[in-house]
Amino acid sequence: MTLRARLTLGLLTIAVILLVPLLIATRSLDRLHSEAKALRDRDFAASLLLGRLRDALNDLRSSEMAVLFVREEKSRATMLQHVADVERLADSLDTYELGRAERDVRSSMDVVTAGTQAEHQAVAERRDRDAEKISNEQVIPALNRAEVAVATAERTLRERTRERVVQAASAAKNGSRAAIIGLLVALIVAAVIAVRLTRSVTHPIAELEFGMQQVADGDFGAKLDISPSRTDEFGRLAASFHDMTSQLAELDKLKTEFVSVASHELKTPINVILGYTQLLTEELYGPLTDKQQKVAQTLEVQAKTLGRLVKQLLDIGRFEAGGGKLDVRPVELRGFLHNLEEAFQVLADQRGIRFHVVAPDGLPETVHWDADRINEVLGNLLSNAFKFTESGGEVELTVSPVDHSVQMEVRDTGAGIPPEQLPRIFDKFFQADNQGAARASAQSGSGLGLAIAREIVEAHHGTITGESALGVGTTFTIVLPERAAGRRSSLKTHQVLAEVG
Predict the structure, then answer these.
(1) Which of 416, 425, 487, 497 is the most exposed place for a label (fewest CB within 10 A)?
(2) What Å distances lie between residue 276 and 266, 283, 291, 295, CA to CA?
(3) Which phi and psi angles does 397 have, rounded to 5°?
(4) Residue pair 373/457 in contact by the 8 Å Cβ criterion
(5) How many of the other CB atoms lie within 10 Å of CB of 111?
(6) pLDDT (tens digit per residue) in 251-294
(7) How many Cβ atoms sit within 10 Å of the Cβ of residue 74?
(8) For the segment 141-185, what is each residue's pLDDT rounded down to a tens digit?
(9) What is the mean pLDDT of residues 416-427?
(10) What does the radius of gyration of the chain's CA atoms come to, in whole angstroms?
């Protein structure tokens, strides 16, 4: 499955899982809505109907009194109309399922109707005692039974309404609880899926990053914990990575062979030239004229310069090709600085330049560096400082601790470097326009010293920078970790064949 398909499937799964608590909450709301609608359409309407029925019974009771005392046909008609109203309202009670209320009210109204007829006839015949007896024994008890039936229906309605309210509250509570539990479960499952999905992406990325760092550190035999047979993008990346490391390993082997061959092929003829020029100057092949002696001396000087240039060129070539390994060992820092100060103090006295090393308290007693390489870097920087500083000037090496690292500054009061040329001082073969400040032409450099210094410092996982101002001086700052990793330089190796070859 491709990475895009995996991400899409994972996101859709999370979305579906998060929809479950929403569906639970929606179902709970639907049940609550159904209960509320039942309360509105049935129980509330039944309550209104029972209220109207009770009012109708009250009107009926009043009209019965009027029949007893008014003695008019109109009173009897009014009472019969109220009986009809009560019966009509009672017919609707059966719709709301209120038990026997409808039958009890209707049977009571049948008694009331018959009693009303007899009561009205007795009143018309002036039989008041009989009329009163009919009222007390038939009509009023029937009205009482109807009112009891209505009261019973009201009690039944209240109980039913209470039960529905309780059911609605319980449904809401259960729905809320179910939604919360569902949401928690959905969040947990979604989190698990998200973590697994994230890990399925971040782990291969971290593995690729680690592998690329190993390649950058010069380890072309790095292996990834990712199968090239995977069908997703990471499988294709792993296959490409393995192809790349194989090609880089082969290229590294070729470059190592090139450096070895170049070292032998270039140094041998130079040594031969130096040997013969020395024999000429020693006149082993016969006496030389003064002019011939100068030519032989010039050839010897230039051959030595060429030898030194070849050595530097091969040295930086080894670093760029990944062959410049560091011999990292414990170094007693103050002893290292003391030896460096003694070595350059003689040169400072010869040229009339004030030179001193500043090493305050707080420096680590021991550092883990390649002492010969760092001595080469500082020696190159100090040599340049003395070369471009006039007599009476000052050269200073300041060493100080900085956050588990050591900072070294080489400062001089020499000619300085033009600001537009400062960014290029670490480029190979580049020489600033201040070469005229050197005392003799033999002191002019090859333009490789600072490039080699940068390679050595970066191989120690350190940094080197330069600041300068014309007529004021130059300051080079090196920051090295107290413990440097003994690894090979990780610069791009493909430049060596083009620049060294």
Answers:
(1) 497
(2) 16, 10, 17, 13
(3) -115, 115
(4) no
(5) 16
(6) 877 776 776 666 667 777 888 888 888 888 888 888 888 888 88
(7) 10
(8) 888 888 888 888 888 888 888 887 787 777 777 777 777 887 788
(9) 84
(10) 55
CATH class of 329-485: alpha beta
| DSSP per-residue string spanning 54-111 | HHHHHHHHHHHHHHHHH--HHHHHHHHHHHHHHHHHHHTGGGGT-TTHHHHHHHHHHH
Mean pLDDT, residues 63-71 taken together: 71
Buried b (16+ CB within 10 A) or exposed e, 340-364: bbeebeeebeebebebebebeeeee
User: Residue 3: what pLDDT?
Assistant: 67
Please check whether residue 378 is in contact with residue 408, taking contact to mean a CB–CB distance below 8 angstroms: yes
pLDDT score at 495:
37
Environment class of 413 (CB within 10 Å of its CB; exposed 0-12, middle 13-18, buried 19+)? buried
CATH topology assigned to domain 3-194: A middle domain of Talin 1 (1.20.1420)
| Helix, coil or strand: residue 476 | strand
| Interhelix angle 45-70/101-124, nearest 10 degrees | 10
- C-alpha closest to that of 411 among 425, 423, 394, 399: 394
Query: Between helices 73-91 and 45-70, what is the axis angle to 10°?
Result: 160
Distance, in Å, from the CA atom of 321 to the CA atom of 220, rounded to the nearest integer, reads 12
Cα–Cα distance measured from residue 62 to residue 404, given in angstroms and rounded to the nearest whole number: 108
In sequence order, the β-bridge partners of residue 367 are 331
Q: Kindly state the tokens that stand for 216.
A: 């950058």
pLDDT attached to residue 107 = 84
Question: What is the overall mean pLDDT for the chain?
Answer: 79
Token code pair at residue 242: 């393995």
DSSP state letter for 475: E
Q: How far apart are CA 54 and CA 50, in angstroms?
A: 6
Residue 258 near residue 501 (C-beta atoms within 8 A)? yes
Handedness of CA 442, 448, 451, 452 (dihedral sign): negative
pTM recorded for the entire structure: 0.44
- Amino acid letter, residue 457: V
